Each structure stands twice: as C-alpha cells, then as structure tokens.
C-alpha cells in the first residue's frame, strides 16, 4: 500500500477566493450496467446512484458522481486515516460486485487529487481555461461535469453555492495548481 503524500504544499486564500486540497479522502470508481449491480450498490451504500447525466447524489457519508451511463465515482464526505489505504467500503463492494462479476470496483484514492475551490470568482477562473459553459452548472447544486481545464482532464462537482470540488489526476495536480494560482492572481 502507498502512503498518502500531498502534492499541494500550500493553500490559496486571498479573502474572496480560496483553494485547498482535501485529503485524505477515499475515492472509488464503480462500473456496471446490470440491474443486480444497481440493486447491490444501493443496498451497500444506502443510496441510489445518479442515472441522469452530469448529476450527483449525496448522503451524510458519501457522494456519488455520475461519470457515464455505467460509471460513477464514489467519494467519502469524511477524511480518512492517513496511515492506511485499506477501506472497508472498498473491500465490501469489491467482494459483492467485482467477485460476483456484476461490475467493477476500483480504488482511485491515490490516482485523483481533490481540490476545493471557494469564492464568487471560481467560474471566471474556470472560464479562462475551459471550453465548458458554466451557466447551468453554477445554478444547480450537485451538478457534475468532466471537462478540460488548462488542457488537463478534470472532474468538477458543484458542492454548494460558490463551492466546487475539482478532481484531477495526481500527475497533473501541481501544474494545475500553479495555473489556478496564477489565474487567481489576475482577478
């Protein structure tokens, strides 16, 4: 197992805009189509996976982000232990889904860095480096999208008004962080 090392060493906070890494947070990728898959996931997570494009569902402990008609990212709403990369939920889902050939369960905790962006200017920063039209996205809490930000694949989740969770692959996190920091300084 890997030990979690944060790639982001500081926070950006200029009063009206802030960005920080949220870690360590469990992230699991789910893939499946069968009715039994959806039923099993609903029972194990105690929540229904979103089936409408670019939406999410949230419970007190988990958020399910729609990625495609047969793919979701499950994100813990709570911080986890830095000492271990073993998660009960991942093991339980792997046993009930992957081992029974209903679908795939993949731990992507170490693959994605989660950034939390807050402030009224976040959509101006996104628009500076992203082709996506944020008009509907920023009006609807729980909206999600997979897009490009400064030529980097990202997943965006509208958590609440003026708060967006951004998921980026670890290998691109520092580069994207520098771009966000530079863009924020120009506002």
Strand and helix order:
EEEHEEEHEEHEEEH
CATH fold group of the largest domain: Gyrase A, domain 2
CATH homologous superfamily descriptor of the largest domain: Probable tRNA modification gtpase trme, domain 1
Radius of gyration: 17 Å
Structure overview:
- The chain is of the alpha+beta class.
- The protein folds into two domains: 91 residues, Probable tRNA modification gtpase trme, domain 1 (Gyrase A, domain 2), CATH 3.30.1360.120; 82 residues, Alpha-Beta Plaits (2-Layer Sandwich).
- It has four helices and eleven strands; from the N terminus they run βββαβββαββαβββα.
- α1 packs antiparallel against α2.
Key descriptive features of the protein:
five-stranded antiparallel beta sheet, Alpha-Beta Plaits, single chain, 11 strands, 4 helices, 2 domains, Gyrase A, domain 2, 33% strand, globular, 187 residues, six-stranded antiparallel beta sheet, alpha+beta
Provide a short characterization of the protein structure.
This protein has helices spanning 35-45, 88-98, 122-129, 170-185, and strands at residues 12-13, 17-21, 27-31, 56-58, 62-68, 71-76, 104-107, 112-119, 144-149, 152-160, 163-169.
Topology:
Elements: E1 12-13, E2 17-21, E3 27-31, H1 35-45, E4 56-58, E5 62-68, E6 71-76, H2 88-98, E7 104-107, E8 112-119, H3 122-129, E9 144-149, E10 152-160, E11 163-169, H4 170-185
Antiparallel strand pairs: 1-2, 2-8, 3-6, 3-7, 4-5, 5-6, 8-11, 9-10, 10-11
Helix pairs in contact: 1-2
């Amino acid at each position: 197992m890997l030990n979690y090392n944060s790639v982001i060493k500081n926070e950006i906070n200029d009063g009206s805009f802030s960005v920080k890494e949220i870690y360590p947070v469990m992230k699991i990728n789910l893939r499946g189509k069968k009715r039994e898959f959806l039923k099993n996931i609903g029972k194990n997570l105690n929540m229904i996976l979103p089936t409408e494009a670019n939406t999410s569902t949230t419970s007190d402990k988990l958020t399910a982000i729609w990625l495609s008609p047969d793919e979701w990212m499950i994100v813990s709403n709570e911080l986890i232990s830095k000492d271990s990369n073993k998660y009960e939920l991942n093991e339980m889902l792997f046993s009930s889904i992957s081992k029974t050939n209903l679908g795939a369960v993949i731990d992507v905790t170490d693959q994605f860095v989660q950034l939390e962006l807050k402030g009224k200017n976040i959509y101006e920063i996104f628009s500076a480096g992203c082709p996506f039209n944020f008009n509907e996205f920023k009006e609807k809490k729980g909206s999600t999208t997979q897009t490009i930000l400064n030529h980097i694949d990202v997943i965006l989740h509208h958590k609440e008004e003026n708060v967006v969770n951004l998921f980026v692959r670890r290998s691109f996190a520092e580069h994207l962080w520098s771009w966000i920091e530079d863009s924020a300084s120009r506002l």
